[in-house]
From TrEMBL:
EC code: 2.8.1.4
Keywords of this entry: ATP-binding, Cytoplasm, Nucleotide-binding, RNA-binding, Thiamine biosynthesis, Transferase, tRNA-binding
Catalysed reactions, semicolon-separated: [ThiS sulfur-carrier protein]-C-terminal Gly-Gly-AMP + S-sulfanyl-L-cysteinyl-[cysteine desulfurase] + AH2 = [ThiS sulfur-carrier protein]-C-terminal-Gly-aminoethanethioate + L-cysteinyl-[cysteine desulfurase] + A + AMP + 2 H(+); [ThiI sulfur-carrier protein]-S-sulfanyl-L-cysteine + a uridine in tRNA + 2 reduced [2Fe-2S]-[ferredoxin] + ATP + H(+) = [ThiI sulfur-carrier protein]-L-cysteine + a 4-thiouridine in tRNA + 2 oxidized [2Fe-2S]-[ferredoxin] + AMP + diphosphate
Gene source species: Ligilactobacillus faecis
Family annotation (CDD domains): PPase_ThiI, THUMP_ThiI
Recorded name of the encoding gene: thiI
Source organism phylogeny: Bacteria, Bacillati, Bacillota, Bacilli, Lactobacillales
Pfam families in alphabetical order: ThiI, ThiI_fer, THUMP
Record GO terms (molecular function): tRNA-uracil-4 sulfurtransferase activity
Main location: cytoplasm
Protein name as catalogued: Probable tRNA sulfurtransferase
């Protein structure tokens, strides 16, 4: 049967008191963004529910998009029928006849938001149930745990029938928790960190450091493609590419190799903070997980974090690699992340990075460098682009690459 609308139930935002209106408005905005290429839809975000009128559009691709929007608890594709009991009976029987298989059980669950309707909920349950029993042969009523619960909602503008409810993505509407930057590499962890940040309502902008000619155009494109994978949750994401070559070359030339990595990270963090501040970001997210590699010991985090007072948030800090990979697979970033285009850190990775760098030493080595000049020049070379749902950057080279394996 052709669904006429999707009824959307809000998630956690229902507990937010007077901020509720902001949350609903933002969710409405995000849903419109996510569905922008379905112009026939009419989206109405009311206080208790959101209604997406399909106007002839197929419900399936719309629901696929919807399932990625944070702030939605669940949704049901529904059929709107005129407020005429005979019509409702007919459609209800048709819906169940389509689902019928041997032994199928059902019940009717009617609700009225319009209490002036001529029948009450018990009368409607009886009438519709009786009609279905008569017209769908073999079907049985079961009040406790039936196979199908047909929900009937009587509203002023029509009667809505649905029997399926799908889980939404949960979380909070992106944008309701403020803005931040995400340090996005081409690896497995940072896209997952970005996903988790967005899930809690944070509007993120990507900061990616690249080092031409040591890193290829493909490495940059991979980071953009990873960003594109995260756009369905928000519609679009700003991608900020920061040239990092001069900084890495200078550090390599002037600093003992044990501190290369610590100093590179300190520069990354400084730059991320400056970019965040300029763009009204309140925090920096990254994909660090405790103990994963040399740069991710507590000593190392302390020596790196020394350069900023802005909150540095690490959504995957306590996860095992397998747990992170599981999420990466769920959000479809894993296969892309494991493609081996070297990013700037791999290229300049020292053979034996210190796992317990000292803050004092990091500061001491940095005195040999023109920190401000290096930062200024990197900032001057920033390129910002907007990445939208469906954008592609790898241009089929993934397959070309697969052939080489
Ligand atoms: P990832 O899988 O996210 O690359 P990782 O385990 O490989 O993480 P590192 O390479 O040590 O860890 O990087 C730690 C974090 O530093 C990353 O999660 C990311 O947030 C940030 N980072 C590393 N390289 C870059 C880069 N080129 N551009 C932006 N951020 C980076
Ligand atoms: Mg990495």
């Amino acid at each position: 049967m052709q669904y006429t609308e999707i009824m959307v139930r809000y998630g956690e935002l229902s507990t937010k008191g007077k901020n509720r209106r902001n949350f609903i408005d933002r969710l409405g905005f995000n849903v419109r963004q996510a569905l922008h290429d379905f112009p026939a839809l009419v989206i109405k975000a009311h206080r208790d529910r959101m209604h997406i009128q399909l106007n002839g559009e197929d419900a399936t691709p719309v629901m696929a998009r919807l399932s990625q929007v944070f702030g939605i608890q669940n949704f049901s594709p529904s059929i709107r029928v005129e407020r005429d009991v005979e019509k409702v009976k007919e459609v209800a029987a048709q819906m169940l006849a389509e689902k019928y298989h041997e032994g199928l059980t059902f019940k009717i669950n009617t609700r009225r938001s319009d209490h002036n309707f001529q029948y009450d909920t018990n009368e409607l349950n009886d009438m519709l149930g009786g009609h279905i029993l008569k017209n769908v042969s073999g079907i049985k009523v079961k009040m406790k745990a039936p196979d199908i619960t047909l929900r009937v909602e009587v509203r002023v503008n029509g009667i809505y029938l649905s029997y399926e409810t799908f889980d939404g993505a949960g979380g909070l509407p992106v944008g309701t928790a403020g803005k931040a930057v995400l340090m996005l590499s081409g690896g497995i962890d940072s896209p997952v960190a970005g996903y988790l940040a967005m899930k809690r309502g944070v509007d993120i902008e990507m900061v990616h450091f690249f080092s031409p000619p040591y890193t290829s155009e493909q490495a940059l494109n991979k980071a953009k493609e990873l960003t594109a994978k995260l756009t369905p949750y928000v519609g679009k994401i700003q991608f900020i590419a920061v040239p990092f070559t001069e900084i890495q070359e200078t550090i390599k030339e002037k600093v003992p190799s044990g501190y290369l990595m610590t100093l590179q990270r300190r520069f990354m963090l400084r730059l991320s903070e400056l970019i965040a501040r300029k763009r009204n970001g309140l925090a920096i997210f990254n994909g660090e997980a405790l103990g994963q590699v040399a740069s991710q010991t507590l000593e190392s985090m302390a020596a790196i974090n020394d350069v900023t007072t802005m909150p540095v948030l690490r959504p995957v800090v306590s996860m095992d690699k397998n747990e992170i990979i599981k999420i990466a697979q769920d959000i479809d970033t894993f296969d892309l992340s494991i493609q081996p285009f070297e990013d700037c850190c791999t290229v300049f990775a020292p053979p034996a990075p210190k796992t317990k760098p000292k803050i004092d030493k990091a500061r001491y080595y940095e005195e040999r460098l023109d920190v401000n000049g290096l930062i200024e020049r990197a900032l001057a070379g920033i390129e910002v682009s907007e990445i939208k749902i469906g954008d592609e950057f790898m241009h089929g080279k993934q397959e070309a690459f697969a052939d080489l394996l």
